[in-house]
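Supplementary Note 3. Input sequence used for the single-chain structure prediction.
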Amino acid sequence: MQKCGINPKPKHFDALLSQTAAVGFLEFHTENLFAKGSAYQKILKLREKYEFSLHSIGLSLGSADGLDGAHLEKIANEVTQFAPILVSEHLSFSGFGGAFTPDLLPVPLNEESFSVFCKNIETFQNKIKRQILIENPSVYFAPNGETYDLADFMNGLCEKTGCGILLDVNNLEVCRQNIGTEPCNIIDALNTKFVKQIHLAGYKVQTRNDGKEIFLDNHGDFVFPKVWELYENAIAKFGDMPTLLEWDNEVPDLPILLQEANRANELKQKVLNHEYA
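The predicted structure, written as discrete structure tokens, is reproduced below.
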């Protein structure tokens, strides 16, 4: 069984270097590797002990004006440097016409956006000469003008470009709470051969001025029970997938990360052994 990975922060680096933690891999946001400071030197040493995956957050695959060449070149350099087991990005956009946002914004799922994503995914894959995985988004409102459902859109991207899917089950739950999509239907509809990785994380519930609750994909808490249930469903369908425990805000000490990752390992083992309810 493949052990769950974690996405460590600088506060964890020394502990990870002084031991060999029982994790499947370490995942880093690729953009955080662009600054070549003291933390980068420790990351180079970590690569000698652990497998890596690289997860980009700023390439903006949904941008109709194409990918930023300088940004893509930097990502390609890190892929060459670290030889990760997986490379991924998001089904979203964060920039257009030279303006950029700090958020991963949703794109209406229609023929126009399908064409844009295909073009940009192919550009990315051709540059790094390997497959990338595309992560399903967290959505806070239902965009107008959609003609695809999420599973058909992502299956179609994989068929057209040869990319794979990073299935974030926390994002599925966030979308269920915010716009009413049914996660189990999405899991059922995704083609098994395309799903190559799973993400787990915690969300945050915030109350708007109008009193309505909104679920935020902030990666700042333990994994919630509904997300563990979705993880069970995903493993039951897709099998022994590489899994990442994400924690990006209010980050705990390493033992807590490892404890949560080990919970994922135990649950996966039960599902693979057909011991779950």
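The domain at 5-272 is CATH 3.20.20.150 (TIM Barrel). DSSP finds nine helices and twelve strands in the chain.
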